[in-house]
Amino acid sequence: MPIIKSSIKDLRRTARRSAVNRAAKGKLRSALKKVRTAVAENQLEPGRQALAAATPVLDRAVTKGVLHKNAAARHKSRLTRQLNKVTPPAS
After folding, report:
1. Which terminal CB of the chain, N or C, has fewer other CB atoms within 10 Å?
2. Residue 70 above 70 pLDDT?
3. Is residue 21 part of a domain?
4. pLDDT given at position 59
5. How far apart are CA 1 and CA 24, in angstroms?
6. What is the C-alpha to C-alpha distance for residues 32 and 36, in angstroms, rounded to an integer?
7. Which residues contact 44 (CB under 8 A, 6 or more apart)?
8. Contact call for residues 35 and 51 (beta carbons, < 8 A)
9. Where does the pLDDT of residue 87 fall: very low under 50, low under 70, confident under 90, or very high at 90 and above?
């Protein structure tokens, strides 16, 4: 445990920032997993909805500094490509 006041404050600040980053990363992972699950199950419409929900989550992660903008663009691009490969179910 630090003794210096500024170090104590740094510790509190780090804990707060870590909590915010952990929450943002969790939301991000959940959103990406929903899209990947829909693609794996060959579900086109739920996949589109999940991708539409994941896009703002990715953008928010960029503005919060959790993710680099190119990484977010790469995720969006790859997910879109995977979703476009899904064949609609034969009726």
Report:
1. C
2. yes
3. no
4. 97
5. 27
6. 6
7. 38, 83, 86, 87, 88, 89
8. yes
9. confident
Helices (DSSP H) in 41-90: which residue ranges? 44-64, 69-85
Look at residue 60 and tell me if it is in a domain.
yes
pTM of the entire predicted model: 0.83
Tell me how many domains the chain contains: 1
The structure tokens 């939301």 sit at: 27
Cβ atoms 24, 30 nearer than 8 A = no
Question: 49 in a domain, yes or no?
Answer: yes
What pLDDT is stored for residue 88 in this prediction? 73
18: in domain: no
Over the range 20-56, which residues count as b (16 or more CB within 10 Å of their CB) and which as e? eeeebeeebeebbebbbebbeeebeeebeebbeebbe
CA gap 49, 28 in Å, rounded: 15
Amino acid at site 36: R
Give the pLDDT confidence of 5-62 residue by residue, as tens digits.
999 999 999 999 999 999 999 999 999 999 999 999 999 999 999 999 999 999 999 9
